[in-house]
Amino acid sequence: MGGSSVPVIATSCPKLRKIFLTANRSVTDADMLALAEHCPLLEQVDILGNNSVTGKTANTLLARCPRLSFFDLSFCNRLTEDVHVELRRRYPHCDIKRSFQ
Asked: What is the dihedral of CA 78, 83, 88, 94, to 10 degrees?
């Protein structure tokens, strides 16, 4: 059996408020979209060190999880400075972290 357990967690825990997927390089856009669809109460998400998640998916998660107040996107190589600036502009209520060194 392969694949990610994130969609299983998302569908099984719709009241999830925090998830830390730090340095989990197997997390994909599909995993993040499962969280966005099934866990609207999310307040904190940490995907530090991820190289797969795109800006479009990060935007979707923020749009569908209005309580999200902390989103760590540090060392996520696919997310450029422009993406971070735009996400911060659109979602000023959320502390979006970015480190890249």
From this structure: -30
DSSP letter at 46 equals E
User: Strand 95-97 to strand 70-72: parallel, antiparallel, or no bridges (unpaired)?
Assistant: parallel
Domains plus CATH for the chain? 6-97 (3.80.10.10)
Least confident of 26-35, 66-75, 92-101: 92-101
This prediction has a pTM of 0.91
Residues 6+ apart with CB under 8 A from 94: 62, 68, 69, 70, 71, 87, 88
